[in-house]
Design brief:
Blueprint (H helix, E strand, L loop, with lengths): L2 E10 L7 E9 L3 E5 L6 H9 L6 E6 L5 E4 L11 H6 L8 H10 L13 H13 L5 E5 L7 H12 L4 E5 L3 H7 L2 E6 L2 E5 L6 H32 L1 H5 L3 H16 L20 E12 L2 E12 L3 E4 L7 H8 L7 E6 L5 E4 L12 H6 L5 E4 L2 E4 H7 L16 H14 L4 E5 L7 H13 L3 E5 L3 H7 L2 E7 L2 E6 L2 H8 L33 H28 L4 H4 L1 H37 L1
Parallel strand pairs: 3-7, 3-8, 5-6, 6-7, 12-18, 12-19, 14-17, 17-18
Antiparallel strand pairs: 1-2, 1-4, 8-9, 10-11, 10-13, 15-16, 19-20
Helix pairs in contact: 7-9, 17-19
Amino acid sequence: MPPLIQMKDIALTFGGTPLLSGVELSVSATERVCLIGRNGSGKSTLLKIAAGLVEPDSGSRFVQPGATIRYLPQEPDFAGFATTLAYVEAGLAPGDDHYQARYVLEQLGLRGDEDPAHVSGGEARRAALARVLAPSPDILLLDEPTNHLDLTTIEWLEGELGGRRSALVLISHDRRFLSNLSRSTAWLDRGQIRQIDRGFGAFEAWRDDVLAEEEREQHKLDRKIVNEEHWLRYGVSGRRKRNVKRLGNLHALRQQRRDYRGATGNANLSAAEAEKSGRLVIEAKGITKSYGGRKIVDGFSIRVQRGDRIGIVGPNGAGKTTLVNLLTGADAPDSGTLRLGANIEMATLDQHRESLDPKSTLTEALTGGRGDHVMVGGKPKHVVSYMKDFLFAHEQMRTPLEVLSGGERGRLMLARALAKPSNLLVLDEPTNDLDLETLDVLEEMLGDYEGTVILISHDRDFLDRVVTSVIVPEGNGRWIEYAGGYTDMLAQRGADLKREPGKTASDGRKEPRLAAPSTTPKRRLNFNEKHALETLPKMIEKLQAEIARQQNVLDDPDLYARDRKKFDRASATIATAQQELAAAEDRWLELEVLREEIEQA
């Protein structure tokens, strides 16, 4: 099947290291490609080149004559449009049905008469989606389509795209969305594309294998260089006369090593933790809140214990932020009682990133404009060192916030929130714009965090991996807490967020019932769990060897009398190693059991 769009040998450099180097990508009719890559790897730029909005330095772009393309940008431009309907209709081609524009807007929860200058982030994203969906194009290029959308809209969009015959190229951080829609995966890594004819569900295991093989090849190259250098210094033929060809080969090997661009490291996320809070963190009894006669929260009760991870989900406008403000004491309830536990230290990540001054620099945003140190957990840390933990380069110290990408702004807000000592983290849409690798690290950080977490999220996979319970709106101000993650909530509730839930019991609580068979991907080991399974056996072996070595030292019957300090050192080393060994064995056993359960599921 001939491609609808094809790009060959695309190269682009914005000064310094090439952003794109020899990139090739083709998309055929009805094909569904997810475009994966780190923040800043050039995904959005490549999509703009595919849409014809950016001209590459070199390479070619071919579009099948007559094929229609629609591109969804991360930040749509509404300038010159009086209403959302006018904006959507402007995207129609001659001969397209104008009724379709209004129909798609209504499906996305918009009337069409909204002023684009005063819509929320979620409304702006829905209007932009309506503009690209209304014409039914041959190719849809979608850059982060789920950003700022609630779960109801994400699931509607998933079903809508799944039923269309348009070819898709998707950029998204939403694992569940990508797994359900993609059929092939294009990985943009260090300026080049690798591609597999499998959906996102197969990507992470494949990526890990590719990086592991690359690491082995670099190790072989390093050994070859060492051998050649040894010949150059000590070889008999090397002393008699310098073999010009072999010397040239050595220079070529060294150049190959210098040109190698290693995989980008992961962010080093860690929350500055305060002293432990009391066992009881929050107790709410019958709290109620209304605005303009509309009940947002009606008679909600909950006990939050130290270490709980609570997710709050629901459509935009349901009152998720209001509920969080009530639970944290930021807003007073109209009725009911709220009690906060002892020694609460709260850190908050606000979803409104535009509250930062766009003209201020990265350093000023992190330090508050005071000096060149950040207070992390009450201790000063140089701003450059802290920036590197969140994958910012030294050269970005003076970068104005207005030029940061969405992912960089997301990491900046996390950096600001996590610097404050806390035992209660309140995170509003923490996953927005973060790449998959940083999401993995954020999940691991939240897993290691000893305090309590309350988060609002529309990322189903993230919720399944992180939270211990989910709070869902049931209409008319009623909110119900379900044990487990998002998928567990659906199984208990018996309906997704788009449909009416099952009947309530006589006492007002939900009657759990079995959910219909789900297309949701099964639980799988994440990157850190797989890495631990691979590395823990070597660590266990090393600790066992260290214990045996120190035991040999202690087997000397005269050691205590001859060298008391050496005896004490060996004893302390054995005790520490035995503790670490027990912990490593327990963790390996836990992960091995989890792996077997997943394989048998």
